[in-house]
C-alpha cells in the first residue's frame, strides 16, 4: 500500500495557563491515504480546532509524531513549518480569506509569490487551478468582491490547489453558504478527489461529513472512527 499522506501517532496536546494544564488531545492516532476524502467532526470544545491546527502545521503537538508524506513535522522549527504550510498544504477557510481589491487570477497566484517562477508561468498555474474547480474563464479578471459566495469559495479552493499540495485542508468550507451553493462546493471537492487529491474537511455538520469516504470524530479530545453509515469505533485513548 502507498505511504499515508498523513500519519499521526500518539499525539497529545497540553496547554499551560495560569489556571494550570489543559489536556486537549489524548493519544490521537490515525492516518489518511493518498486520494482519500476524510471528514473530521466534533462539537465546540472537543479538540477539533486544535487537531486542525496541528494538521495544518499552525501548531505542534506536546508529544507524539506527525508524519506528512513521511516528513516528521512535529520536529520542525518555525521557519521549516512555514515552508511546509506554503508548499505541502492547501488551506480553504469558511470566510474565504480572499483579497477583495485583487482579481480572481491574482488571488489564486498569491501562494506562488515567493517562488522563482516568472509571472507568465504563475498565471498558467493559476489558470489550471481555476479550470480544475470549474470557474468560467470570463470571471478570471473580476475582483473577488464581485463574485457570489459559491464562486468565491471556488476561487479559494483554486488558490489552495495552485501549489499542488500534499493535502487540501478545508475548515468549514460550506459554513457561510446556502444549501444549494454548499452542494456545488462539495461537488467540487468530489471532482478533486476523483483526480487523486487528498482532502481533509473539518465540519460540525453531519450532512457535510457524510459526503466523505470516512468520518473521524473528536469528543473530549479523544478520537472515534466512523464509516459513513454511522458505525463508530474508538482508537487512541477512546473510552
Automatic annotation (TrEMBL):
SMART domains: AAA. Transmembrane segments: none annotated. GO terms for cellular component: membrane protein complex; plasma membrane. It holds the Pfam family ABC_tran. One of its GO terms (molecular function) is transmembrane transporter activity. PROSITE patterns: ABC_TRANSPORTER_1 (PS00211), ABC_TRANSPORTER_2 (PS50893). Residues 6-239 form the ABC transporter domain. The keyword Transport applies. Keywords: ATP-binding, Nucleotide-binding, Transport. SUPFAM superfamilies: P-loop containing nucleoside triphosphate hydrolases. This is ABC transporter domain-containing protein. It comes from Collinsella tanakaei YIT 12063.
